[in-house]
Every structure is written in C-alpha cells, then in structure tokens.
Amino acid sequence: MKPSYQLLFNFIITLLILNPSKACAAACCGGSASSSALITGDHKAIFNALYSWTDVIVDSVDGSGYWYTSTEHQKVQNLRLEASHIFWDRFQAGLSLPIISRQKFSETYTGLGDIVGTMGYEYLPDWDYNPYRPHGVGFLTLTLPTGKSKVDSSVGGLDSRGNGLWAFGVGSFLNKSWSSWDVVQSIEVHRSFQRTVTSGLTLKPGFGGNLMLGGGYSWGNYRLGSGLTWTYEDAIEISQGISTSTGSPERYATFSFMLSYLWSDAWSGTLSYLDQTLFGEPSNTSLGRGFSVQIQHRFSR
Amino acid sequence: MIVFFIFEALSCARPKYADTLSSGPEQLSEKPSCDAQFIQSGYCLNWAWIKKPTSTEAGSLFFKVYKKDNSEFLLTDFTTIPYLELWMPSMGHGSSPTQTSRTDLGTYLTEKVFFVMPGQWEIKFQIKENNQIADEAVVSITI
C-alpha cells in the first residue's frame, strides 16, 4: 500500500470509531452504557478527549409517544477522556472516564459519570485488504456505578450522572472502506444488575443495547460522515416496601453528522452535530440536540 | 450508503406534542369519594389543588383521608403524617421533596409541590414505617 493510501486508510478507520453519539446518552438524566474507544488501526495506543454540549429540548416522551416541552431547557455538558492500549498481539484494553455537568433553573450539578472498562480483540484483521471482508473488533465492557443514579436524586434527576448500576456488555465493531467511501456498523448488548441505592430503593434492571450504522466520504485530509445510533433499555423495576414501580422500556435514536480533519498520522479532530429528535420512535426518554468536539492522539507501534 | 440513507429516512421521528396544562381537581367534590385508595388500610383519599404548580413555581394541595364504614365516609388519621412523593414512572425518577402538615382530623396540606419537567407523573401518598413504605395511594396526573 502506498504511504498516502495508508494514511487515508488509517484516517478512515480511526475516525469511524469516534462515534460521537456515545456522548449524547438519554439527554435528561442518567445515561446508557457504551464502550470506550477501540483501536482499529495499526496503532499501539490511542487517547481521546471529547467534549459535548446538549440542549434538552424535549423534557419527556411518554409511552404513548407524546412529547412534552417547557420553556426552561436542561443543558448537559460531557467531558469524556478515553484511552486504549494494545497489551498482547490483537488484544486491547481501554478505559472511559466521563465528567458530566447538568444545568437548569440557574443550578448546576457536576461530577463523575459511570466509568467503563473495555477489553477488545481484533477478530477480523484486514492484513490483505480484502475487497469484501470487513475489518472487525469484538469487545467486552464493564460499567462501574460511579455516577449518581437518577432514582437517588432529590432534584428530579438534575444531579444524576449515570445509571448507577453495574453492567456487563458484549459487542462488535465492523468497518469497510472502498476508495473514498466507507461504512461502519457497531452493536453492543449489556445486562445491568440489581442494586439497592442509598435512598433505600431497590432497582431491578434488565438488558439494553446500542446499534450504530454509519458511513462517510473522505477527500484529502478531510472526512464527512453521518451515523445513526439506536439505543434501547429494558424497564427498570423500582421497589421499596409495598410500593413498586414497574417502569417502562426506554428507546431513542441519535443522529450524528461529523466533519473530521487529519493533522498527521498521530493527530485528528472531529466536529459533530447530534440530534435525537429526527429519527426513531422515542419512548420514555428525553431528547436533545447539541454538538461535540473530539481530539484524538494515536501512538504508533 | 444508499441503503443506509433509505433506512434513516424510513425511520424519521413523528412527534406528537402534548398539551402541558396541569391536570387534577381544582376543588374537592362536595361528597367524600375515593379518588384513590390506600393499598393496605383500604382508606379512601380525596385531593385538590390549592395552587397549581407551574414550570418555575411550586404549588400546593390538600387532601382528606376517610375510613369507609358501610356506606359512610369517616375522616380518619394515620399514626404518622403521610409523605407525598412525586414520581415520573416513564422516566424512573422523582422530583424535589414536598412538605406535608396536618391541618385537621384526616386533613392534610402539602406544600413545595414542584414538578421538575412536564409529562405524566404520579402523586404517591405514602405512609412510611422504619424507612419502608407501609401503605400507599397513587393518583396519575399530566403536567
């Protein structure tokens, strides 16, 4: 492969994994589980710094599909630091550390979100640049309940920064590029575990998952891309004494449109627009619009 | 890519914006009735807004608890003052704490009733013993 094509190839596959919709979880409160950054190129390690800003323009969507809005919108800022490192041949380990800030009614709450650890394995390498076979990385995730749960909140979820639940997930990432065009697909399924929070409420969660499809076009050092991520979470049953709330399943879709620029083989940046009001049939959730800025540094083998 | 964009187009969201005026009675019915019933004791509850909450200001409400004796409704007290929990079942979270006081036999006033966002809510009238919910009556409203 010629050096310029090698650079373009690395550019595509490393930017494809910058799925900015991960930064835009259920907008109002809490957040869905996700993986940390994955190394899909020929690198030893990567480091991501991602900042996102979301305006929660739909406060709630009920189970019948009715959208409720108010004049006072919650604003969510998310700073996510991610790092991944190859530790043996095709195995990698990574960590994602989010800092979340919510603001409404001139009150602001900031703190650590749910930390996610990831173990990945490149199960479909692309050593021979096969024209049809995609490149694939499988991964396992472990979510730590370091973020405050929305059920533990006394301000209606405004100070929540995660699901506050242990969760174990499994997923796969596939990508393929032809000339200047590329497509990407990612799927992740997780199981959250029962927990009693500090307020005495017992949470019985279930399964959840994310499905992402995307694609893009690259020219020179630029790439224009688009992606859609569908998110689903089983209902969480919440009980205390004789009182039980069965909850309702949550679902929403996050559309992203992104422009990326490759400074060098080691540095790249992505500017994204995120919108949860355009696609899917959202239910039992809140919806936001926003943008994200991401810087990635890659370390060569 | 073409398949992807067709897939995106087919799954466009179709929003149905809801009327967000607060629901719920503005005055108590003249005759006692069972707006809601406590699960354990079977006591009946009537409630009404004194001041409806808005998106920026807390409201207040009062409620009466009755013991049903044959066809007669008798005002009655619990051994403890009920706690009023505001709960959004679809989103799985509550709102800010409320404050309830007894004003007369079986009659209570709850202040600081504030809903952090519009949507479908439950007002849970709860009796707590040893930090556990021992009895509860629930009414659903739209804010």
Your description of this structure?
The complex is a heterodimer of chains A (301) and B (143). Chain A is mostly beta strands and 301 residues long. Chain A is 5% helix and 58% strand. Chain A has a 12-stranded antiparallel β-barrel. Chain A has a 4-stranded antiparallel β-sheet with strand order 10-11-14-15, with no helix packed on it. In chain A, β4 (91-104) and β5 (107-112) form a beta hairpin. The longest helix of chain A is centred in the first third of the chain and has 14 residues, at 3-16. In chain B, 6% of the residues lie in helices and 48% in strands. The longest helix of chain B is centred in the N-terminal third of the chain and has 9 residues, at 2-10. Chain B is globular and about 65 Å long. The interface between A and B is large, with 58 and 45 residues. β2 (66-68) of chain A pairs parallel with β1 (16-17) of chain B.
Question: What structural keywords apply?
Answer:
heterodimer, A: 301 residues, mainly beta, twelve-stranded antiparallel barrel, four-stranded antiparallel β-sheet, 1 helix, 58% strand, globular, B: 143 residues, six-stranded antiparallel β-sheet
